[in-house]
């Protein structure tokens, strides 16, 4: 019986010794849960840390040992992607904790950390260091615990680029938007759309909404449209309201709204045609055949082979609305030896003869086959930029040669029938004077014969 009692005593003693050894081993390993102080994370706000945003941790500090504790200090040692927030302490203290506390009597400490804005999605370690003194000893005990915090990737997208800054009126043009996922998490079910509140710019061949199934972090996608501006739109800068919605990792819908500017209007086009040529001037019709107004229009005849301009080679005709036209006149002639051929020049003192008529005819034919006349038009477009357009005009001439030519006798003499009018008048006057003088002479001869008794041969008898 005594042996049984002694054996029982030895078994009980070994059990207590093993339990004590286990406690001592736990303390030597630094596992805070095996020591007299137990620290737990009771709350995290938000539940998943977000890049660029603070995260708040609520810690429960509980004395589970048999001794009272004092001078308890809890310190956070953050590493990337977590960092200290200005004005927030990383070390907090509890002056006293009774032994064998339950959860309701535990101390509560709150800490705030900042999450790096470029943090990638994942799980990160955070070290918590606790120091305290036991009531029965003046030695400081230090324990370390590592917890894990989950970081949700940054979910953000933006419209980085718009392909065009301006479009023409009533002309189909491409318009592209580049959408980039600037966050660190994938985005899904993106819906992109835009509107012009004034209804001037509208998409063609499709509506204004585009769908993107998935967009990885750092990836870009191009959203393309064909657009057209109303033909009656006033040139100017128009606002496009851009909207982008997407779903995050928790299937929560988020929305981004922004604006973009698009200039409507720009260059225009002209049509130039030969109008008439008379009195030493060649008139040209200049019409604005584009869809935009042209400001401060200047029409010029540049230097070119086959033609020369007497006097001013340019004229300012002012503003031209779309569909308007104006007349610009210049003293243009075929240059000597130019591509347009030689122009016959007559001296005012020498009347034209048949040889000159042949020369004039040859000159007229030569002018009809001359090179086109180059006309340069400068104007300010709807954006305020100076533009230049060059057109070619075929100068039309009649067989009598209505195009003017300039020679030593003075510029602007007509090479047509009008140049012969002075000579024809002189011939008519000279002919009239000759007939008049002949009739006077006949009357004088008749009077002399009558006075001398002279009879005309037809009055004499045979």
From TrEMBL:
Gene3D superfamilies the UniProt entry points to: Immunoglobulins
Compositionally biased intervals (Low complexity): 358-371
Comp. bias (Polar residues): 331-357, 395-404
Keyword Signal: no
Positions of transmembrane segments: 420-437
Region feature Disordered, mapped onto this chain: 331-373, 394-413
Domain of life: Archaea
Start and end residues of each Alpha-galactosidase NEW3 domain: 175-246
Keywords, sorted A to Z: Membrane, Transmembrane, Transmembrane helix
Protein name: Alpha-galactosidase NEW3 domain-containing protein
